[in-house]
Amino acid sequence: MMMGNPRGTIAINAPLFALAPERHGFCLKRLSNDNIMRAIWSGAIGFGLVNIPVKLFSAVQASELDLDMLDKKDHANIHFQRVNANTGREVKWENIVRGYKVEDNYVVLDETDFEKASPEKSKIIEIAEFVEEKEIDSIYYETPYYLQPEKSGAKPYALLRDALKKTGKCGLGTYVLRNRESLVLIKPQNDLLILNKIRFAEEIRDPAELNIADVKIKPAEMNMAVQLIEQLTTDFDISNYKDTYNEKLLKLIMAKAKGKKPAATKMKVVHSKSRDLMAQLKESLSAPKRKAS
């Protein structure tokens, strides 16, 4: 079923594709590349007394389909408004300020206040120490970024990159982006320096509240589990894994655009017939190796 739209297009925004009307229905049309990388921050890396001017670029992008929110009744687009709680009127972005409530009053802050709080951290990623990457648990990792040197920083950038490669170390430091202090790890990758935002310790929840049963594992069960792990062990290759859900969802959308009613796919879940753990492990070892998807 086609969603209501005066021009007969479908109200779904895919980042790199558009649904274009053709003679025999709809087709997938690639749009111009709007995902050109743009710097989100400019500053410098502080490496001892050396300042390396750099620009920061996001290293990731969303891969899911960008679905619009619609009114169920007439498929009109849903818009979100910034509304004054007292008057009910919409407030434009240029008239919005930020504030922190102290007792019953707000202390209003402007951009200069955020910079005054720590001007050096707004402009410099100061490397405080160097660490082994393996010492940092994956639970702390948050978002990756690319660091690109300015022309004047090309040589010290290359020096830091190559020195990190030679020592096998990563730089650990802090900086402020969008009024939030971030802990970051700087590491080399080929010709680049990668900046990974990592979480502070206080951002990690204490797992003590979880209820993990204390169970005993039999030696035979452990040996069988280790065999299963070794059987499924390969060299990591991220290209073996594809986001197939969006592809299938888009096929369903295209079918609905043509007035078809897609048949529901039955979920196939293979379980062992036995409830015995050893029997399940043995059956797993004899089962065909699953392919990455």
Please explain how this structure is put together.
The chain is 22% helix and 29% strand. By secondary structure, it is an alpha+beta fold. It folds into 3 domains: 1-35, no CATH class; 41-63 and 97-203, Beta Barrel (Ku70, Chain: A, Domain 2), CATH 2.40.290; 219-286, no CATH class. The strands form 4 sheets. A 7-stranded mixed barrel has the order 4-5-10-13-12-11-9. Strand 2 (17-22) and strand 3 form a beta hairpin. It starts with 11 loop residues before the first strand and ends in a 7-residue tail after the last helix.
Estimate the global geometry from the Cα principal axes: extended
The top-level CATH class of the largest domain is Mainly Beta
Give a quick account of the main beta sheet: strands, pairing sense, barrel closure: 7 strands, mixed, barrel
- Taking strands numbered 1, 2, ... along the chain, how are they ordered across the largest sheet? 4-5-10-13-12-11-9
